[in-house]
Amino acid sequence: MTSDTTRSWVNPVMGAVSVLAIGAGLWTAFTSAPDSEQGNFVRILYIHVPSAWLAFLAFGVTALGSAGWLIRKKLRWDRLAEASAELGVLFTAIALFTGALWGKPVWGKYWDWGDARMASTALMFFVYLGYLALRRATPDPTQRARRSAVLGLVAVVQVPLVYFSVTLWRTLHQPFTIRPDGIQMDSSMVVALLTNLAAFTILYVALLVARYRLPGEVAGTATVPAGAAVTAPNLRSEP
Amino acid sequence: MNFWSQALVIARRDLRIEARAGEVTGVILPFAAIAVFVVPLATDTLTVRLADLGWPVYWLVSLLFGMSVALRNSATESPTQRRHLLLLGVDPVARFAGRAGAAAVLMIAVMSVTAPLMVLFYDPDGLPPIALWAGVVVLFSTGLAMLATLAGDVTVGLRARSMLAPLLVAPLAVPLVVGSARAVESVGRGTSTLGPLMLLVIADLGLAISAIVTAQPLEEATT
Predict the structure, then answer these.
(1) Would you call A160 an interface residue with chain B, using a CB distance cutoff of 8 Å?
(2) For B135-182, what is each residue's pLDDT tens digit?
(3) Per-domain residue ranges for chain A?
(4) pLDDT by residue, tens only, chain A of 239 residues
(5) DSSP letter, residue A141
(6) CA B202 remoteness from chain centre
(7) ipTM of the complex
């Protein structure tokens, strides 16, 4: 019996904890004070900011898994990198979508090319789409692990660039809200933001564990292509 | 043979193959020139100032055709060739440096031809000094050559290589495009070129470090 089957309680428990955490996050998001300038549109940020934070975390874990594979040559590191990259792409897409949704009423447009954070986040999204495309294009598991580990390590350079883009370049994006000299927000908004950060992180861990435990056949990473066992029927009658 | 001798031999081999195959000079370079020529034809020149499009078109053409140069068929080593080099004791980093160096030389040649064509067809405002342009082109070509060689190695032997490698290169090459474009623009704007040039140098250094760190695992993956 494998550990995947003996620990069958892990996914339901993690799922239940995530649902509770997201519920608490939504409750704080809808009960916190509206912003004096943005009004209720500020509530979009309680999804946008945690998604962006998780994208950074997920791509960092991908780099960790990539380095782990290159050092230890164990496929479990590659599975970790793959699972985290998929989640990173998902959370980056959510961050981009919610950012555009928030930008229309507050900035007057969905997308602004003068904003370095938006442009660099979109680039990061495309790089990791390329990472996933590379994985899909490489059928051999060892080759896939080795090649994607190299890309996973190179691509993570973008994470600090995206994070610090608000201070490095001309940008519309607001600078860091939580700074060493104090927090530039109302206390109920801080509670909502931190609760949602925690809730989304729990959701990320739950999804990561579930994706990591998914067998290769189901995850689409099996070495034998589907239908390989099917052979052509012998239509000739026996002599 | 020391590291640099090995890199030089590999670069000379790639350039010799290109001289025989003529893939860059006979195919990629004319195609790049046509690309520079076609954009004004596809633009309403009564409402759009071509002078404003000149440099953006130049960097876009340099990026797209630079990738074609680095990923050209004649520069693709077969698994047998790579195993042969490995058995000869060629340092994987030297092999990378040689191949990227040859690609950079060819990219500089392409960019040196498309630049006067761009000036001729678009007549951009405020041309930069030749020395600045040359420095930017060298930094841009070196970075793009390293990046595309890395992507070429990551995707070698894959059926989707021709589409996958540019997909990996284009977003990662953005710091090179931004640094080059801003450095050249800074002359017209009267701002400092130091920041954009630093961005190019940092991007090149980052790519060089990535190449050194990943050369060995990539060697194992492709032999």
Answers:
(1) no
(2) 999 999 999 999 999 998 888 888 888 888 888 999 999 889 989 999
(3) 11-172+185-216
(4) 445 555 778 888 889 999 999 999 999 999 888 887 788 888 999 999 999 999 999 999 999 999 999 898 888 999 999 999 999 999 999 999 999 999 888 888 898 887 888 888 999 999 999 999 999 988 888 889 988 999 999 899 888 888 887 776 666 776 666 666 767 677 888 899 999 999 999 999 999 999 998 866 555 555 555 555 666 666 665 55
(5) H
(6) 16
(7) 0.73
> Is B30 touching A (CB cutoff 8 A)?
no
Q: Does the beta carbon of A126 lie under 8 angstroms from any beta carbon of chain B?
A: yes
Longest C-alpha distance within chain B, in Å? Answer: 62
| Sole residue written with tokens 């190179």 | A154
Residues forming beta bridges with residue A178, ordered by sequence position: A183
Q: How far is A138 from chain B (nearest CA, A)?
A: 7
Place of tokens 């990198």: A81
In the block, tokens 């050092």 appear at A71
Would the CA dihedral through B68, B73, B79, B81 be positive or negative?
A: negative
Q: Provide the CATH topology of domain A11-172+185-216.
A: Four Helix Bundle (Hemerythrin (Met), subunit A) (1.20.120)
Query: At a CB cut-off of 8 Å and minimum separation 6, what does A121 contact?
Result: A52, A55, A92, A95, A96, A99, A162
- Distant-in-sequence, close-in-space partners of A21: CB < 8 Å, separation ≥ 6: A198, A199, A202, A203
Report the distance separating Cα A206 and Cα B191, nearest Å. Answer: 50
């000094």: which residue's tokens? B129
Q: How far is B26 from chain A (nearest CA, A)?
A: 30
Nearest Cβ partner of B158 from A129, A138, A158? A138
SS3 label, residue B48: coil
The per-residue pLDDT for A201 is: 95
H or E, element range at A60? helix A45-72
Whether residue B164 and residue A133 make contact (CB cut-off 8 A), yes or no, is: yes
Check CB contact of B171 with chain A, cutoff 8 Å: yes
Interface test with B, best of A134, A136, A144, A148 (most B CBs within 10 A): A134
Percent of chain B residues topping a pLDDT of 70: 99
- The region, left, alpha or beta by phi > 0 then psi within -120 to 50, assigned to residue A235 is alpha
